[in-house]
Design a protein that fits this description.
By secondary structure, the chain is of the alpha+beta class. It contains eight helices and 14 strands. Helices cover 27% and strands 24% of the residues. Strand 2 and strand 3 form a beta hairpin.
């Protein structure tokens, strides 16, 4: 049970070692400006392997439960499915339900652990496998693998890293369950933190903000909703950035190669931007179009 690319990576790896009797994912959704109805990555990966796919709108109307009972899985593996499994489904498989979560639990329980770790400037994250219960990512931990967050990482690179790591951990976990050697360590709720879904409004920033915070926001939100600032009444999205130790007054242009703007406690290099109503371009190109020079203010 899973939906996005990170779950598809896990499915592909698991299918090499085990029989997958069925795949559940979210319904196809409109994507892009033309709203082209597009199947999720997990569906495509399943169909390529001849695995039956189910995309229920609800899990609590009894139909999904009947389908899973018919499939009679020994184990359900869940990776970024996007739905809470009701007790009736959790109790169907003989060996229970296991979840791969992209954080070192109990930190970052919730829908956006990768982006929240980046936004908060963490230097390390990882993946956990756990037995599922009725709570939100509160189940007993089976195993975990850590992964450093480098300054050059963003949401794209971390999804790739943790997808591969999660796929490896899932296969190891299923193997341990099969052998009867899987652990079950309760989480310490006192150390828990949440990673709620991203909101579009979270992308906005001011040059009065911390330079580190702006940099972290840019790399965390590079997929969606994008970090952004206002200039001359229009929104400019900051899609790729780098922290700089240069200092100046908030909003001051310190350099044009690359475009570097001062903020609190440092500066930010604007490597890729997308101005409202325009194409993707380098910060240097955008500054040239605005005729900005060192010493000007944004």
């Amino acid at each position: 049970m899973g939906t996005p690319e990170i779950a598809a990576v896990c499915l592909k790896r698991l299918a090499l070692e085990h029989e997958i009797v069925g795949v559940f994912c979210q319904p196809d959704k409109p994507v892009g400006r033309k709203a082209v109805v597009t199947p999720p990555p997990v569906k495509l990966a399943a169909l390529e392997r001849g695995i039956e796919v189910f995309q229920p709108l609800k899990l609590r109307d009894g139909e999904a439960e009947k389908t899973i009972e018919r499939l009679a899985p020994e184990l359900i593996a869940v990776v970024a499915y996007g739905r809470i499994l009701p007790k009736e489904i959790l109790e169907i498989p003989r060996w229970g339900c296991v979840n791969i979560h992209a954080s070192l639990l109990p930190k970052y329980r919730g829908a956006a652990p990768i982006q929240r770790a980046l936004m908060n400037g963490e230097s390390e994250t990882g993946v956990c496998s756990m037995y599922m219960g009725e709570g939100l990512d509160t189940g007993d931990i089976i195993a975990s693998k850590s992964c450093p967050i480098e300054d050059g990482d963003d949401a794209v690179s971390m999804f790739e890293k943790l997808g591969a790591l999660g796929a490896q951990l899932l296969c190891e976990t299923v193997s341990d369950i099969e052998k009867g050697s899987a652990a079950a360590t309760p989480q310490n709720d006192e150390e828990a933190s949440l990673a709620p879904p991203l909101q579009k409004s979270e992308g906005a920033f001011s040059w009065q903000d911390s330079a580190r915070d702006i940099f972290n926001k840019a790399r965390a939100l590079c997929i969606w909703p994008n970090a952004c600032f206002e200039y001359e009444g229009k929104t400019v999205k900051l899609l790729k950035a780098r922290f700089s130790p240069l200092e100046g007054k908030a909003g001051e242009v310190l350099s044009l190669q690359p475009l570097t703007v001062a903020a609190k406690g440092g500066a930010v290099q604007l490597l890729e931007v997308k101005p409202e109503g325009s194409r993707l371009m380098t910060g240097k190109e955008w500054a040239a179009g605005r005729r900005l020079k060192a010493g000007d203010f944004i």
